[in-house]
Every structure is written in C-alpha cells, then in structure tokens.
C-alpha cells in the first residue's frame, strides 16, 4: 500500500491581507466614483433621511453611519 504524501501550503497572512486591502481600496475608489457620478456625494445621497436621534448625543452624522453600512454590505465585512 502506497502512502499518500500531503503538501503543506504556507500562506503569508500579512501579504494576503495586504492584497485584500488593496482590492477593497480599489473597489471603494470605483464605487465612490460611480456614486458621485449618479447620485452626487455620499453626504448628498442620504441627506433626505430623517435622523430621530437625540442631537446632543450624536457622535457620527447619520449619513456616515448609513454609508458605512452600505460599504460593509458591499464588501461583505462583519461589524
């Protein structure tokens, strides 16, 4: 009976993560260009959405939160 040899593949995680980050940056650049072309700036995209939060406790503008959510969905990122 012959013994199967298994190959061990080592992955350079920082390199893979760096490549993934570059891909995300490229996609983000294209996405922003497309959004600006069709809808204006990201701030304008969500300016019609009403913000029900207490104004004295707001740390981040609603548009930034909504746009972050869209990007997380687009790039399939976890919170």
Q: Largest sheet, described in full?
A: none
Shape, principal axes of CA atoms: extended
What separation lies between the terminal Cα atoms? 50 Å
Structural class: mainly alpha
Uncertain stretches of 5 or more adjacent residues: none
Question: How many beta-strand runs?
Answer: 0
Q: Rg to the nearest angstrom? A: 21 Å
Order of helices and strands: HHH
The percent of residues in helical segments reads 55-70%
List the total number of helices.
3
Give me some keywords for this one.
79 residues, mainly alpha
3D architecture notes:
The protein is an all-alpha fold and 79 residues long. It contains 3 helices and no strands. The chain has helices at 13-39, 42-45, 62-74. The N and C termini lie far apart (50 Å).
Q: What topology does this entry show?
A:
Elements (H helix, E strand, L loop, with lengths): L12 H27 L2 H4 L16 H13 L5
Gist of the model:
This protein is mainly alpha-helical and 79 residues long. Helices cover 56% and strands 0% of the residues.
């Amino acid at each position: 009976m012959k013994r199967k040899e298994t190959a061990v593949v080592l992955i350079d995680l920082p390199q893979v993560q760096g490549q993934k980050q570059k891909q995300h940056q490229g996609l983000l650049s294209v996405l922003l260009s497309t959004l600006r072309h069709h809808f204006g700036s990201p701030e304008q995209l969500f300016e019609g959405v009403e913000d029900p939060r207490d104004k004295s406790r707001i740390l981040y503008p609603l548009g930034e939160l909504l746009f972050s959510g869209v990007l997380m969905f687009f790039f399939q990122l976890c919170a």
